[in-house]
Amino acid sequence: MRRFVAVSAAVLAGIGLLTTPGSANPGSAHSRSAVPVLPQHAIGGWVGTWAAAPASAVPNTPDGYPGYSIRNVVHTSAGGGRARVHLSNAFGAAPLTFGHVTVAVQGTGPDAVPGTLRSLTFGGAPSVVVPAGAEALSDPVNLRIPADANLLVTTFVPAKSGPVTHHPAAAQTSYFTRNGDFAASESGAPYTEQTSVWHYVSGVDVQGGAEASIVTLGDSITDGVGSTSGANRRWPDYLADRLHGRFGVLNAGISANRLLLDVPGSGAGQNALSRFDRDVLSVGGVRTIIVLEGINDIQQTPHQTDPDAITSAYRQLVAQAHARGIRVIGGTLTPFKGWRVYDDTLEATRQAVNAFIRTGGVFDGVVDFDAAVRDPADPLRMLPAYDSGDHLHPGDAGYERMAAAVRLDRL
Fold first, then answer.
1. Strand ranges (DSSP E) for 78-162?
2. I need a surface site. Which of 72, 76, 262, 329 has the fewest CB within 10 A?
3. Percentage of the chain modeled with pLDDT above 90
4. Cα 129 from chain centre
5. Cα(200)–Cα(96) distance, rounded to whole angstroms?
6. Looking at the domain assignment, is residue 27 inside a domain?
7. pLDDT tens, 114-169?
8. Same domain, residue pair 231 and 197
9. How far apart are the C-alpha atoms of 212 and 356, rounded to whole Å?
């Protein structure tokens, strides 16, 4: 595990004394608790360790992937002694049959660590039919799940199923074969083809380790666009490293996602308000949400230049989360000067939205991502050392800096 930040005994005890430039002041109005602080979840309950929000159907898959075994590689944030898996047909158009599903700890590439592969059941049955628009949750299996490790979640679909639900910006290599059911193969030898997206799998829960889950809701910056593929260097990954398995950290980012509008045909998923219940409120053991979303409403066409429309969406997200007893931390929108559509009008909207996040009193805390990554010599631009090169998405160093800006005691 990358241990870039030394965690003191106070942090491990839950006090969280680390501060960073630009982080919220615990005594300020915008970092007060708007909901009662909940008691800690008893260790032993189900907690999400990994998630990927379903984004869209794979284009041009009217028959689905009949006869395919797909070995998805996913990365844990927290460990435990039991596991269960979420599968999605959210963007399907017909019932989907999973004929065989397994989970294992990854060895090398598509190989499973010997002795760790488990076949999953669904209500005791070895297969499950998932209606169009629905999801399925497996029965638990006993399996020692390490924190900060890769798992293999393999699905076999025996028949034509219609469009395939997927998460396109995985920043991770997974594997597949078109040659039948190899879900139970510990050897990766049958998996001769590769894919850079996640198919069907939307979450993994663990039991017996972490206290609760933190969900990061966002767009491509949360999804990790611009980070090194296969290295787990998205800012939620760096945050998970700082927490050392105490909390699960779940990534609900979708590249190109917006707060207010769907973007048909783009793979950008449903707007954040539409998908909030499925991707955030309903996941295992969620205690806190970090919201970093809105820059696409501003910079994508049609441009949203009324900051009140964006801040109204924030109010709704917070109200719905508070109704479930969940805390919400607002993340300021990061600089984008130099991005291809940047202009003064769009920048003025970003500044107004960030002023609301910092001082509006709606969120339970603030992470000032803007202050964390901006260039002191030109505050409207991202510091070059943090920029992936496109002036909108951070690179690895920028994502690490963003995670370091999160106050652990606000979680």
1. 80-88, 96-98, 100-105, 118-119, 128-130, 135-137, 141-145, 150-157
2. 262
3. 86
4. 26
5. 10
6. no
7. 999 999 999 999 999 999 999 999 999 999 999 999 999 999 999 999 999 999 99
8. no
9. 28
**DSSP SS3 for 149:** coil
The span from the CA of 163 to the CA of 60, in Å, is: 8
Task: State yes or no: cis peptide before 236, omega within 30 of 0.
Answer: no
Q: Are 291 and 396 found together in one domain?
A: yes
Stretch 279-299: mean pLDDT: 96
In this prediction, residue 268 carries a pLDDT of 87
Does pLDDT of 20 surpass 50?
no
Nearest CA among 312, 330, 224 for reference residue 273: 312
Residue 169 · residue 222 · CB < 8 Å: no
Asked if the structure places residue 50 within a domain, the reply is: no
The model scores a pTM over 0.85: yes
Q: Of 184, 328, 238, 230, which Cα lies nearest the Cα of 2?
A: 238
Asked if residue 329 and residue 243 are part of one domain, the reply reads: yes
What's the rounded mean pLDDT across residues 200-209? 95
pLDDT in tens, 51-82: 999 999 999 999 999 999 999 999 999 999 99
Q: With beta carbons less than 8 A apart as the criterion, state whether 224 and 171 touch.
A: yes
One domain, residues 247 and 119: no
pLDDT at 35 over 60: no
Tally of domains in the chain = 2
Helix or strand (DSSP H, E) at 257 = none
For tokens 């004929």, name the residue: 99
Domain termination site, one of 176, 203, 230:
203
- Two tokens at 153? 């979640």
Measured from the Cβ of residue 67, the count of other Cβ atoms closer than 10 Å reads: 16
pLDDT grade for 16, boundaries at 50, 70 and 90: very low
- Read off the amino acid at residue 185: S
141 and 265: one domain? no
State the residue range of the domain holding 181. 58-203
Q: Are residues 93 and 130 in the same domain?
A: yes
Does the residue 169 lie in any domain? yes
Last residue of a domain, one of 175, 203, 231: 203
- Is residue 196 located within the same domain as residue 217? no
Q: Which amino acid is at 74?
A: V
Q: Do residues 188 and 315 share a domain?
A: no
